[in-house]
Structure formats: C-alpha cells, structure tokens
Amino acid sequence: MTSDSLPPHTPSSSNDYLDLGDTGHGYIGRFAPSPTGELHRGSLLTAVASYLDARQQQGQWLVRMEDLDPPREQPGAADSILRSLEAHQLYWDGEVMLQSQRLEAYQQALEQLEQQGLTYPCNCTRQRLKSLPQTPAYDGHCRRHPPHKPPYAIRVEVPDGQAGLMSFEDGFQGWQEEQLSDSVGDFVILRKDGLFAYQLAVVVDDIAQGITHILRGSDLLDSSGRQLYLFKQLGQTPPQMAHLPVIVNSDGQKLSKQTFAEPLDSRHAPDNLFLALQQLGQNPPAELRGDCAELLEWSIPRWDRNQVPKGMAIQQEASNPQQPLS
Ligand code: GLU
Ligand code: ZN
What we know:
Layout: E1 28-31, H1 41-56, E2 60-65, H2 77-87, E3 97-98, H3 103-115, E4 119-122, H4 126-130, H5 141-144, E5 153-156, E6 165-170, E7 174-179, H6 180-183, E8 187-190, H7 198-208, E9 213-217, H8 224-233, E10 240-244, E11 246-248, H9 269-279, H10 292-302, E12 313-315
Parallel strand pairs: 1-2, 2-3, 9-10, 11-12
Antiparallel strand pairs: 4-5, 5-8, 6-7
Helix pairs in contact: 1-9, 1-10, 3-7, 7-8
The structure holds glutamic acid and zinc ion (ZN).
Residues 122-124, 141-142 line the site of zinc ion (ZN).
C-alpha cells in the first residue's frame, strides 16, 4: 500500500515522523517550506520534484514547516501551503514537523557542539561584518576576543585545510567542493536575537527525520557545505543532495515572496501541476491535464532526473500560464 491513500493528518504520537513502519525501502525525502508566503510556482516545482523522486523509490515524503523565524513569517501561510499541497494531491506521510516545536533538539545539538569545543560567542555588529575586507568569510575576530556578556550569537568553528573542505556529488549540479574557511568561515548557529540559525535547525531535523535524500532549490546549494560540516560534527552520515534549478523572472531573480511571486490558485491545480511537470522536463500527456491524481500516477514511474533542465535556473517565460502549454 502506498501511503498516498492515508489521510494526511492522522492524529498520532508526537514522534510519528520517526516511526513510519516498514514502507519506504529506506528512502526518506522531504519538502521543507518556510511559511513566509503561500505556495507559488517556484515552491511547487520543488515540492513536485521531491515528491516524485521519493514516490518512485517507494520512499516516504515528509513535510516540515520551517517556522523558525517569526518576524519573516506570514500569519496563515503554513496552513495555506499545506492546503495547497493537498489541492495538488501531494499527500505527505506522517505528521508535519514544525520547527517551532523543536527548540529543545536544537539546544541539545548546540550543547553537543559546545562540548566538542567547537563553538564561541560573537557579538560582532552587522556594521563590523560589513566592513571586513573583500573575503566573504568571517575573520574569526571573536574566536580570539570572545565577548563575556550577552547578547551574542554563537558561531561554530570551521578548520582550515582538508578538514574544512566539503565535497559531494550533487544529484543535479555535479561535483561540488567548498573550502568553508574561505567561503564562510566560522558560521552562526544561534543568532544574536536568540533564534536558532537555519543551518543548524535543518541539519538537526534532517537527522531526526532520518532523511536520506534532499531535493531542493539551487538557491540552497551554497548552504550545503555548512550543512555537511554540521552532519559530520554531529557524527551523522549526510543525506544525498540534489539541487534543482530554480524558476527565475526576467531579471534573473528567484521567484519568492520578495519578488512578488503570485500564489498558486488551487482551482487551477491540475494546470499548475501540468506546468510544473513540463518545467521539470517530464512531458506529461495533454489528455491527463485535467486531473492531479492521474498526472501524478503517470509521473511517478516515469520520473527521470535526467530530463530536468540543466543548470541553476529556469526562466519564468517558459512557465507563463498565459502561454500555450504544449
Ligand atoms: N525552508 C527552506 C526554504 O524554504 C528550505 C530548506 C531546505 O530545503 O533545506 O527555502
Ligand atoms: Zn564577533
């Protein structure tokens, strides 16, 4: 039985997402939206691709709401994203994990890194960070002169040389190498405002949910090195990573709330899904255009990563809903 047939909101224990029985053949994927706005064409693309990749492998597909940064969130967006996924028949397994409920786990990971002697407080101001010479990497100022009283951020130290060289084969973007000490330097895992940083939370949650495959937008490719480093320091094997090209507008900007991406209209769910499949290079037959369930059923066995357009970006023009779709 595929878990598609399960209702998405089965009430169950709070760690339901850790125990999903014997389905999945070991593949656990996820879609991890931030509730900063409604689902738009860009986020639908990531949802569909991660869904198909997981379902083709008879894997689980989890949804995690990354509601870790209240000032950036929009009231009602989390719920609206979930309703929109349902309207497109993208049903997830188990309960939705909420990052806002996970602070203890992040704190534990922080303490583990602290005990490993890898962290230090930093009270550098934005202004100081801006004034650093050309290099994008933090200069380690507070590693040498740690502040004594809050408020401060917590940084994790990254080593020079081989130990700080993160490399992996990306599922879409090929071989990646990043020397962390050059690209970012010691990076923030707890912000000065007391919020846990995305980099820490995402790794702690990917570990807790047993994620084996990450499929997400190429805008997060440059976070992967930091995340691989945290997996390593927390003693865990990282998931396989694959960064899809993201949809960009004619100015080359990623579709997002900031670039005024239109929310998807659920009344046109089959059209939206059809278009997303086309953008992913999957050529769904026009006859199936009217029905999300049929489109997905057709796509799951045929999903082919190799047909996804190469590169980091897909031009929005190709996706203009006013254009004929064939
Ligand atoms: N919450 C992140 C976003 O919406 C995605 C995190 C991830 O997939 O690792 O951009
Ligand atoms: Zn500092």
